[in-house]
Amino acid sequence: MTNANESPLISVRNLEKHFGDMKVLKGITVDINKGDVVCVIGPSGSGKSTFLRCLNRLDEPTGGEIIFDGVNILDPATDIDLHRQKMGMVFQQFNLFPHMSIMKNLTIAPMTLQKKSKEEAEGYAYELLERVGLKNRALDYPLQLSGGQQQRIAIVRALCMKPEVMLFDEPTSALDPEMVGEVLEVMKELADEHMTMVVVTHEMGFAREVASRVMFLDGGDFLEENEPKEFFANPQNDRLKEFLGKVL
Amino acid sequence: MFEQYISIFQQEFINNFIKEDRWRYLTNGLLVTLKLTFFAVLLGLVIGFTIAIIRNVHDNTGKLGFLNFLCNLYLTVIRGTPVVVQLMIIYFVIFGSVRIDKALTAILAFGINSGAYQAEIFRAGIQSIPRGQMEAGRSLGFSYFQTMTKIIMPQALKNVIPTLLNEVITLLKETSVAGYIALEDLTKGGDIIRSRTYSAFMPLIAVALIYLIMVLILERIVKLIERRLSKNDKR
User: Fold this and answer.
1) Cβ atoms B181, B128 nearer than 8 A
2) Which of A48, A68, A225, B100 has its CA 20 to 30 A from that of B72?
3) What is the pLDDT along chain B (235 residues), one digit of tens a residue?
C-alpha cells in the first residue's frame, strides 16, 4: 500500500509537550504513512499515551507541527473537530456512552456530524457489528457487555466514522486476560485491511506479528525504530535491550 | 378530668380554626408557600444550570474568565449571607422605591438564593461524569458544546435529580421567612391566627404539621424516583 511518492498521512515535526516543568515529549519527529501499522512501546511514564493523544489534540501539544492530510492541525485556525472525524480513537477504558444503546453509540456521530440518514448509519453499523460478531447486541446497553465486547464496540464506533487512521491507546490494558485475544483479533483484521493504525500497547506478541513498524519511546523521544523482526531480534539501543529483557 | 381536656381542646380548635373561617389563613398561606417554592425552584434551576455551564466551560477551556468571576462572586455572596437578609435587601433596598408585587419579590429572592445552591448541585453532577466521556465525544469530532448536550448532560442530569428534589424540600421550608416582608405564607398565616386568638399552641402546631406532611410527600417522591433511576442503571 505504501507509495514512496505519496506524502505521509501524518507528519510529526519537533512535537513537544510539557506539563508544567516536566517535558514529557522532547521534540518528536516521525512520519506515519498510509497503511502503516505503527506499534509504540516503552516503559510506563515514557510519554507513549501523551504522544498518541497529541496526535488528535486530546492533549494540547506545547510546540511543533502535526501535518495531517496536508494541514497543520496544531494551527489554531484549523477546525480540529473536523480533523478528529477522520481520526478514530480507542481508549483503554472503552468510554462507551452508557446512557445510549449500542446502536445509538455507533450511529450518533455519523448521523450528527456526517449527516448520514438513520438507515445508512445503521446499515453500516450492522455491517461492522456482524464482522466483530456482535450483531445480536445492537439493542443492548454498554454496561450489559463484557469488557472485551465493549472494547470491540468501541472500535466499531470509531470505524463508523470511516476514519483515515485509527489511534489505539493501550486498548487491551484494562481487559481481563481471557478477553485480550478477541480485541487483538479485531485489530489484526483491521491491519490486514490496510487501515492505518497507531497502537500504544504492551502486547509484544501483537507488535511482533501485526506491526509494520515498531517504535521504542523512552524519556520523551523515540530511541529506536525498526520493522518488527529486526526490532525484537536485534535491538541496538541499550535502554531498549533492557526494556525487552524485562518484558519478554 | 380527661373530658375537661377534650372540651378545652375542642374550644381551642373552634376558636383557632373554625371561628371567622380562620382556617383560611392556613390554606391560603399554604397556596402562597407552594407558589413561592415552585417558581423559586424554576428560577433557581435556570440560574443554577447557567452558572454550572459557565464554570464548567471555564474549568475546561479557560474561556469566559469574566463571567466565571461574576459567578464566583454571586456564589460567595449568596451562600455567605442569610436568605432572610437577602429577601429584605431585595424588597426594602433594591425595590424600596418601586411598588412591586410582594410575591414576585419573594420569588426573585428565593430563586436567586436557590440558584446558588443548585449551581453547585449541577456542577457536582457534571463532575461526576468520568473525563473519558468528554474525551470519547471529542475524539469522534463532536464540539465541546455538542459533547456537553448529547453525552455529558443527559448522564449528569439523571445523577442530579434526587439531590435537586432535596433542594426543593429545603426551599419549601426556607420560604417560611417570607413573613418578613409581610407576605402571608403558611407560617405568617399561622402567626396571624395566633395574634387574633392569643393562643400559640394550635396554630403553630398546625403550621408545623402541614410543613411536615408536605416534606414527607416530597421525600416519598424522591424515594420513588431514586428507585426508578437505579433500576435503569442495572439494565
Assistant:
1) no
2) B100
3) 788 889 988 888 888 888 888 888 999 999 999 999 999 999 999 999 999 999 988 988 888 989 999 999 999 999 999 999 999 999 999 998 888 899 999 999 999 999 999 999 999 999 999 999 999 999 999 999 999 999 999 999 888 988 999 999 999 999 999 999 989 999 999 999 999 899 889 899 999 999 999 999 999 998 898 888 776 554 4
Name which of B185, B182, B204 is nearest B193 in CA terms: B204
Phi, psi dihedral angles at A195 (to 5 degrees): -70, 135
Asked if B140 and A91 come within 8 Å (Cβ–Cβ), the reply is no
Q: Is A42 helix (H, G, I), strand (E, B) or coil?
A: coil
Cell of residue B181, nine digits: 416582608
Record the pTM: 0.82
What per-residue string of b and e applies to A86-96 under the rule 16 or more CB within 10 Å gives b?
bbbbbbbbbbb
CA-based nearest residue to A158, from A190, A130, A133, A136: A190
Spell out the residues 6+ positions from residue A197 whose beta carbon is closer than 8 angstroms to its own. A36, A37, A38, A165, A166, A167, A168, A187, A190, A191
Residue A148 exposed, middle or buried by CB count within 10 Å (0-12, 13-18, 19+): buried
Grid coordinates given for B48: 443554577
Cell representation of residue B6: 377534650
B128 CB within 8 Å of a chain A CB: no
Mutant choice from A58, A78, A81 vs B, greatest count of B C-beta within 10 A = A81
pLDDT at residue B185 in the model: 92
Phi-psi region of A42 (alpha: psi -120 to 50; beta: other; left: phi over 0): left
Distance separating alpha carbons of residues B13 and A57, to the nearest angstrom: 73
Q: Taking CB atoms and an 8 Å limit, are A144 and B136 in contact across chains?
A: no
Cβ–Cβ gap B136/A81 under 8 Å: no
**Contact status of B163 with chain A (Cβ, < 8 Å):** no
The answer to whether A112 touches B150, Cβ cutoff 8 Å, is yes
Q: What is the pLDDT of residues A32-88, one digit of tens each?
A: 999 999 999 999 889 999 999 999 999 999 999 999 988 999 998 899 999 999 999
How far lies A21's CA from each of A24, A219, B61, in Å? Answer: 9, 14, 21
How many whole angstroms separate alpha carbon A80 and alpha carbon A83? Answer: 5
Distances (CA, A) of A142 to A92, A186, A236, B46: 15, 18, 44, 32
- Asked if the model's pLDDT at residue A2 lies above 50, the reply is no
The verdict on a CB contact (< 8 Å) between B136 and A84 is: no
Q: Which residues are registered as beta bridge partners of A226? A: A214
